[in-house]
Amino acid sequence: MYDRLKKILPIVLIVIVAIFSVLYLFIGRQYGVEYQDTLYFPSSEEDTTVYSAKVGGQPASFTVQGDTVTYRWGDTVYGPYTIREDPTAAPVVEWEYPNLIGVEIREEDSILFRGGHTEDLFLFIREDGEPASDLFHVTYSVNGVERDADGNVVAPHQPSLKTLIRFSQLPEADAHRGSLMYWFFGLLIAGITALLIRFDDTLFRLHLSFRVRHPEDADPSDWELTSRVLSWLAFTVFSFGVFIAGLMIIS
After folding, report:
1. Beta pairing class for 101-107 and 76-85
2. Where are the domains of the chain?
3. Is the pLDDT of residue 84 over 80?
4. Is-contact 49 70, C-beta < 8 A?
5. Among 250, 251, 243, which residue's Cα sits nearest to residue 21?
6. Where is 112: in which H helix or E strand?
7. What is the per-residue DSSP string for 42-58?
8. pTM of this structure
9. Average of pLDDT values for 18-45?
């Protein structure tokens, strides 16, 4: 058993490193737009741009056509929303909120927001000078249903004002999955594991040389061999886990 694992595990480590290196290379080239820890991949045709993804096992997409944005999640459709810049909508409080960009957002005939926002979309001020209340809300769950402070049902996938404006500006695909740092750590752990397997007896006797005389005459006990195997398996699983974790990171 011991000798068999000593031969098999290095091959397993090589396979793990090879597979994840290919995955990191392939996935790292797929750039998209990050939204709620998911990458939306753009495709354009004439005057329409669609950002597509998978969210909760359902297809999701932002469709941008002219000044309208429509969000779909599964069979649920949000919008279409109309986003138009309007300098007259920005509140006249420039001494307190400088450089506000005036905008009006409609859902069909209803005005969702009219006012101004900062260039980084961090702050939204309504036309009357008050902050947009729907940007700062508290929700709670009752029987799995999200509700706001007034008891109204909150649509879990409804895009925010910030999201609508962001996608209306046709953001570039500049994010991808896969962290090179995690790939390096996974490779490093796999390499250390391979060294522990290759030089098991050498390391054992080196450790004994600080404690006993003539360590070259010592034979490892069954417990020592078992401990080695457990450590090899633990390091192999750890390396695999680090590779997997790195693929989940958006950078």
Report:
1. antiparallel
2. 2-27+177-248, 34-168
3. yes
4. no
5. 243
6. strand 110-117
7. EEEETTEEEEEEEETTE
8. 0.77
9. 93
Task: State which amino acid sits at residue 25.
Answer: L
**b/e 86-109 (16+ beta carbons within 10 angstroms → b):** eeebbbeeeeebeebbbbbbbeee
In terms of Cα–Cα distance, which of 42, 47, 113, 108 is closest to 81? 108
Provide the β-strand partners of residue 61.
52, 72
C-beta of residue 235 within 8 angstroms of C-beta of residue 12: no
In angstroms, the Cα distances linking 55 to 50, 59, 86, 156 are 15, 6, 33, 12
Return all residues near 201 (Cβ < 8 A) that are at least 6 apart: 220
Residues 156, 146 contacting (CB under 8 angstroms): yes
Q: Beta 124-126 vs 58-65: how paired, if at all? A: unpaired
C-alpha angle with apex 65: 63 to 68, nearest 5 degrees? 85
**Neighbour tally for 146: CB within 10 Å:** 13
d(CA 98, CA 172): 27
Residue 136 DSSP class: S
* Edge-to-edge strands, sheet with 33-35: 33-35, 38-45, 48-55, 58-65, 68-73, 76-85, 101-107, 110-117, 124-126
What's the rounded mean pLDDT across residues 80-105? 83
201 has pLDDT over 80:
no
Residues 158 and 164: their CA atoms lie apart, in Å, by: 10
